[in-house]
Amino acid sequence: LNIPVISITNGIDLEVFNPNKNGEYMRERFNIPKDKPAFLSVNRLDKEKRIDQIIRASAKAMKDVDFSLVLVGKGAEAGNLKKLVEELGISKSVFFTGFVSDEDLPFIYTASDCFVIACPFELQSIATMQAMASALPVIAVDAGALPHLVENNKNGFLFPIGDIFARAEQIIFMVKNKEKRKSMGFESLRMVTTHGIETMISQYANVYNRAVKHKNGSK
């Protein structure tokens, strides 16, 4: 279309999602160990989300480092993914929470240490922004809108589509480098401020005001 195009963020509530939430009770609820890092994925458990690749990369990384993988969500692939976890021999380190309520969701982020997303079709990943608002570093596929949220080696890492080995190496790095993990998390928090719901509302208001001015000026 030969008309001006304006990009407006989906927006997230930065008061609801923030690093000050104490999520320890979420670890207790799902029996997630408190003495090792937890890598989180919040997604529908469907094929297009590529959760199987996260599991395979985690299995490779678990040969070198000790951490938990927490998979939040439900979907048609849940059974197959649980079977894959068993086949790879990592059942004791992978935790399927199923559906998590809106009330509890902010706390599962702060109970975690890093966010992982593999779906290459994200138009704008709200889950990734929620993780960033919770001061988590992000390991994300270099596709879709995710490179607009994640800057490589700044607030996390980007990996090529389908590259399980690169993803495993990034996970290993995050487990071994706690201070870097934290500094990347704080960078996520700084970067996500432009996606707050107030920003979204302001952007929409500007669009409507410009439309009204244009209409009045055309009379």
Q: What does this 3D model show about the protein?
A:
- It is a single chain.
- The chain has a six-stranded parallel beta sheet, sandwiched between helices.
- The protein is of the alpha/beta class.
- The model has no long low-confidence stretch (mean pLDDT 94).
- The longest helix is centred in the C-terminal third of the chain and has 22 residues, at 197-218.
- The protein is 41% helix and 12% strand.
- It has eight helices and six strands, in the order H-E-H-E-H-E-H-E-H-E-E-H-H-H.
- Strand 2, helix 3 and strand 3 form a beta-alpha-beta unit.
Give the structure's gist in a few sentences.
With about 220 residues, this protein is of the alpha/beta class. Helix content is about 40%, strand content about 10%. Strands 3-2-1-4-5-6 form a six-stranded parallel β-sheet, with helices on both faces.
Written as H for each helix and E for each strand, in order along the chain, the element string is HEHEHEHEHEEHHH
| Unreliable residue runs | none
Indicate the mean pLDDT.
Answer: 94
Radius of gyration: 19 Å
Largest sheet properties: 6 strands, parallel
Strand content: 5-15%
Structural class: alpha/beta
Tally of helical runs: 8
Taking the alpha carbons of the first and last residues, their distance comes to 24 Å
Q: Which shape, going by the Cα principal axes?
A: globular
